[in-house]
Amino acid sequence: MGCQMLWLWLLLALTIMATTSIVQGCDPGDLKGLASFRGGIHMDTSGRLVKWAGRSCCRWQGVACNNRTGRVTEVHLPGFIATTDFVFQSQMEGWLSPSITLLASLEVLDLGGLVGLSGRIPTSIGRLKNLKRLYLYGNKLRGPVPDSIGKLLKLEELHLHENRLSGYLPTSIGCLKNLNALLLHSNRFTGSIPGSFSKLTNLMHLDLHSNSLIGNIPEDIGELSVLEEFDLSENFLTGKIPVSVNNLTSISVMYLDSNHLEGEIPFPSNYGQMPMLGFLRLQNNQLRGKIPPNFVYLVSLQRVSLENNKLEGAIPSSLGNLQALTELYLGGNKLSGVIPKSIGQLSRLILLSISRNSIQGPLPYEMSALQNLQTLDLSFNSLNLSSIPRWVAELPSLSRILLAGCGIEGRIPDSLRSTPSPIQELDLSANYLTGGIPAWIGGLNQLYSLNLSRNHLSSSIPASVSDLEVLGVFDLHSNNLTGSLEHVFNIGTSFPGGSLTYIDLSYNSFTSGVEQIGAGTLERLEYLNLSHNLQEGQLPTSVAKLKALKCLDLSHNKLGFGLVGDLANLSHLETLKLQRNRFTGKIPVEFLNLKNLKDLDLSDNLLVGEIPAGKPLSDFPQSCFTGNRGLCGKPLSPCKS
Ligand SMILES: *[C@@H]1O[C@H](CO)[C@@H](O)[C@H](O)[C@H]1NC(C)=O
Ligand SMILES: *[C@@H]1O[C@H](CO)[C@@H](O)[C@H](O)[C@H]1NC(C)=O
Ligand SMILES: *[C@@H]1O[C@H](CO)[C@@H](O)[C@H](O)[C@H]1NC(C)=O
Ligand SMILES: *[C@@H]1O[C@H](CO)[C@@H](O)[C@H](O)[C@H]1NC(C)=O
Ligand SMILES: *[C@@H]1O[C@H](CO)[C@@H](O)[C@H](O)[C@H]1NC(C)=O
Ligand SMILES: *[C@@H]1O[C@H](CO)[C@@H](O)[C@H](O)[C@H]1NC(C)=O
Ligand SMILES: *[C@@H]1O[C@H](CO)[C@@H](O)[C@H](O)[C@H]1NC(C)=O
């Protein structure tokens, strides 16, 4: 009898197992949701969606189901695919179907970094009551973040950052320095942050950076008591930082930078608030008032940037107690007073930047205790140092010394010749330096950026500069330097292709050297400015060897002879300034190949003949060609035949 029962039970169990494997198909709602989603996508470089066939959606790539209910719990299709064997940035193009919200049991929706996904966040998103993680960053989604998102009470991570036109902004914008105002608003999330956000009390990560959000940060944001990482940077948010942020007791990362926030910094109001805050960025806003002395309560603070605000008053002496601090950016404010002695206690400090404020001297000797300091930027204050304090050159870790506009007089100090850490960056621009450029400069074998512009230096450039193997930026403009530039064109030639990207020697008295352009291998050079010098002779065809050049300014010299057509081999050239020289002959017809040219000036030379007809030359205003002996044709008046 007992045996029979066992058999029956076994039979029953087998039947159930069989039925479950048949019903392995999908919940009809889930299937419809997934099919509509797939239907909206017309391109998928990962090849994941083409394999979505049949009804067993739980077996589809990127889909996971609850093994008890059979309902879809995860749609996991990130653009960046990393396995143990390979990494791959895939792309999907198409619309995000609102039917995705039919997947009522969804806990994870990861469509992050697919680059080409467009459309909006469906207002029906609030139906996904079980959602814990929502990743829609790095796409082309736009429109408002719907209020219904406040219904996702289980949400732990919300990443909606970087929805912009096409992935990322180009890193190099050539010499069009003003172009950094270029913003690609239209393909980002817009509107304000819904007030309903404060109901998401399980939220740990909230990332909305690089969108076009406007309005205020919700007043009761402090309700998000388990929030750890909070990034609203690079939006157009206005108003004050809500006082309630004091209640974000779990916060460790807070980035509110690059918005239009105003008012005072309202935190921390008491000891023990935000005890885990390690990374704080408030730069590029319009914050006013003082740096709160209460910052001393933020005991975990490691990296903080308050740059480019309107903060005033003295640097609070209490900052010296922030023992975890490694990077402190205070530049571009209205801070005054002296640097407090207590700064010398920040034994872990790696970077200190207080540039562009109204800090007065003298520098406290206590700073000589900053054993780990690598970067010191005190440029453009009211320091009036007269000379670089000896202990600066003796700081054991210092490799980036930025003391522009500090009232430094006399010769470039020999103490910089052999510092404990090799100098990588030296900016002593806009001071009152006199004398020559010392030959020992060539021995700074780690130097990648040298800025001695706007001084009264008056030697020739020593031959030793050509030993600067890793030099990338060389700015000596507005001095009284003389002689030949030839050594400059040999800098870093032992490095394949050369390392220099930027040379500015404008406003000096160099008489020769231009004929050596391209003698070395400056294949990475993007910016060359020799304007306002005394260069004579001819521009050699070897200029075409500077393949990466985007910006060439040789204006206000005494260069002559014909313009070489080889200049047009510089296919990246965006700016070409040759005005106020003595160039003769015709404009080479090859100039029509300069397709990227955005800025041209050939005025006040001795050019003749017809301007080659066509773009880009015809697009420039007349003023780019005037003051020549006999130019004609578009955009000037027609040639008389
Ligand atoms: C079912 O899922 C749970 C959690 O998702 C897991 O721990 C369990 O091992 C799964 N069971 C089976 C039989 O796969
Ligand atoms: C912070 O939280 C406390 C209690 O949870 C509450 O009384 C207070 O009003 C909150 N402060 C702010 C500024 O929201
Ligand atoms: C800078 O200091 C010198 C003396 O070291 C003084 O003569 C000069 O007036 C000061 N300049 C300013 C702007 O404070
Ligand atoms: C060099 O310093 C000057 C004056 O401080 C500044 O205007 C210029 O931008 C600097 N050059 C580079 C390449 O940063
Ligand atoms: C530049 O140097 C020349 C002599 O080498 C001198 O006559 C001239 O005054 C100097 N100009 C400046 C601005 O220092
Ligand atoms: C070259 O330098 C001069 C003087 O410093 C400056 O006026 C000019 O704008 C620079 N040219 C370019 C193209 O940046
Ligand atoms: C510039 O390009 C032309 C045509 O491709 C070529 O004949 C010439 O040698 C190039 N000039 C230089 C200096 O590379």
UniProtKB/TrEMBL annotation:
Q: Where is the Disease resistance R13L4/SHOC-2-like LRR domain?
A: 272-472
Q: Which residues form the signal peptide?
A: 1-25
**Which chain regions cross the lipid bilayer?**
none
In this protein, which residues make up the domain named Leucine-rich repeat-containing N-terminal plant-type? Answer: 29-66
Keyword Ligase annotated: no
Q: Which residues form a coiled coil?
A: none
Tell me the InterPro entries matching this sequence: Leu-rich_rpt, Leu-rich_rpt_typical-subtyp, LRR_dom_sf, LRR_N_plant-typ, LRR_R13L4/SHOC2-like
The compartments listed are: Cell membrane
Q: Report membrane topology.
A: Single-pass type I membrane protein
GO (cellular component) term, any one: plasma membrane
Keyword check for Glycoprotein:
yes
Q: Which UniProt keywords apply?
A: Cell membrane, Glycoprotein, Leucine-rich repeat, Membrane, Receptor, Repeat, Signal, Transmembrane, Transmembrane helix
**Which superkingdom, per the lineage?**
Eukaryota
What family is it from?
Belongs to the RLP family.
Q: What is this protein called?
A: Leucine-rich repeat-containing N-terminal plant-type domain-containing protein
Q: Which organism is it from?
A: Hibiscus trionum
